[in-house]
Amino acid sequence: MKTYDRPKIEVPKTTIERLLNWIGGLTFAAGLLYLMVSWGSLPDQVPGHYDGAGEVDRWGSKWELLVLPSITAVLTVFLSFIEKHPEWHNYMVSLNERNIEFQYRNSRQLLNTIKNLLLITFTFLNWKTIQVALGEADSLGMLFLPAFMAVTFIPIIVFAIRSFRHQ
User: Fold this and answer.
1) Predicted structure pTM score
2) Domain DUF1648: where (predicted)?
3) Any idea where the domains of the chain sit in the sequence?
4) Which H or E run contains 24?
């Protein structure tokens, strides 16, 4: 089935998708609130970048703390929009009448999961950066990069396996 031939099918959101949206949204809102409350206490220079071991390797203006929430908000809006159009997604299996509803739901759930895990991860990153700037933490820690990679790639692998199992 070609991309332009795919039908638009209304597949209701699952309870898990709605729950993840709430958790991601509330986490992001709490992170913004924490940033606003902490703003007056922040020094002029805050961590601007971390190396692979989670150590600060560049310091920058505290205004840089607004970059990550801005990127997160734009990504969330974009992924939410794309999530609503599974007929536009790329699929690793051929779509047919028997599997199209499952494949649409599976693809949408993958985007929903990644979107909300990014919301939570980027909010954690901003929170931890504030902690480092205030002297309440030394670094992100060595496990941040491997954890971020796992949070990104494990859902992709899991949902790809699900997709292949339901050809």
Assistant:
1) 0.88
2) 27-72
3) 14-165
4) helix 15-38
